[in-house]
Amino acid sequence: MLFSLGRGKSLQFGVTICCLIAFVLFGYDQGVFGGILQMEDWLDQFDHPSDSETGIIVSCYNLGCLFGCVLNFIFGEKLGRRKTIWTAMALVIVGATLQATAYTVPHLVIGRIVTGFGTGMKTSTVPMYQSELCDRKYRGRLVSAETLFVGVGIVFSYWFDFGMSYVGGPIAWRLPLAFQIIFALVVIVLVFALPESPRWLFKHGREQEAVQVLCDVFDKEPTDEYIRTEVHAIHHAIELEAIEKKSSSWISIFKNDRLRTGHRVLLAWGAQFMNQIGGINLVVYYIPSVLVQNVGMTAHLAQIIGGCVQMMFMFGSILPALALDRMGRRNTMMWGSAGLGFCMLMISVLLSRVGFDNGQACASASVAFFFLYNLIFGMGMNCVPWVVVPEILPLHARTRGTAIGISSNWLWNFFVVMITPVIINRLQWKAYLIFMVTNFVFVPVIYYFYPETSNFGLEEIDEFFTSGRNPVKVAKEMTKAMRNGGVRSGDDLNKASILEEKDKAEVEHN
């Protein structure tokens, strides 16, 4: 660190602010291009690209994000959390510069791909970094707050574009694209004042530094019971991995070993699959087009209504940012998916009346369910997958497993962005039935396969998977025991359980 933010609360606050600004940038990157596509100067500069060319220009960013996750999978564990974030921000700066100075489509596409590289690395590192540097009691709320600030970034970019559309000329679209650099520079400066992840330091043999980071973050001495318990839990996780003789090869994280690593990587991948395939980017990227083509609004009114719809995403994210650890992960995902499915059903039913008597009134009424959809998504499926991915993975697979989990987000983001213009034009109201079905299917999937991880330490979550039983049932039993005082959350870890598991592992090893 070149300078320090102190100890305890001030340092935790610095970590959180850095992560939040990184995710404001994520949201800004997501939303900034949508408002540019209809600007006259942009269209003139790039010779009024066809629908297919526009699709390539928009979606190449998502492919860049996917490959950014691949870069993190390959290099993230070697670089550590801080250097990965630095690298990601540097790539965003280069990409934003290329976009803002573009005069040809290939130039613009390269800039968007490079920006995507940075975004992919950032989004597969920042939630993990926050999870490893916060109290477990607040982990859900803090990582959920990151997704709240994605909404802040989307809304800011949307209205920034809208305001700049009245300015006209090349600055109307070049300035919003260049503005990404400001966020990236702030994150780079903040990271210089923040520590490396203590879990990454332990894993790489830098124990003294790791203990000091824990002491600094929680403002305690090395002899404090909380620090000793955290150190013991991390050692225990590393020892279990050593006993299993973990391979450092990439393929090792897909194996269903004693820690059920492959199973947990699949759960992480599936969480982000559900985040995207429920149809959110139909709304984020294309809501003005949807309102014009399916509802029949004028382009100007559609842009204003679209901006208001995006604000619901942000408002909905406030609830989990304040209370996710009390709401729980499973229940929030289940009622969230059910609510999204209901909204898609109502949109489809109302739009199906277009062409009949009172059809326009029904189409206008469907707008209410776009508002409700974004509100429910912000409250549920927006935040929980980002929390679940880093916390459900074992330490040895956390970097690469998180990269794989977040790559699912970008893969299916790309898929939805590519198919949406086609299905809303060809299928009209029937297109929304596709997303109705996917959201309703997610409810039983979550119920039967995803354990509740709220209020458990990262190392405690390993116990869900090492017993050889159904992790969902084990999590329910541990949650019940926690409420009855048998397993403690907060400042205490169930040390007896950890010691018993360690002894068992040593006996098996011998």
- The CATH topology, please? Growth Hormone, Chain: A
Percent helix among the residues? Answer: over 70%
> Major beta sheet, specifics?
none
The shape, in one word, is globular
The number of helical segments is 23
- The named CATH superfamily: MFS general substrate transporter like domains
CATH class: Mainly Alpha
Per DSSP E runs of 2 or more residues, the count of β-strands stands at 0
Strand content: under 5%
Low-confidence stretches: 487-510
What is the multimeric organization of the chains shown?
single chain
CATH architecture: Up-down Bundle
Q: Please give the radius of gyration in angstroms.
A: 23 Å
The overall pLDDT average reads 84
Number of domains: 1
Succession of helices and strands: HHHHHHHHHHHHHHHHHHHHHHH
Distance between the termini: 42 Å
Subcellular location: Membrane
Pfam families: Sugar_tr
Family: Belongs to the major facilitator superfamily. Sugar transporter (TC 2.A.1.1) family.
GO molecular function, one term: carbohydrate:proton symporter activity
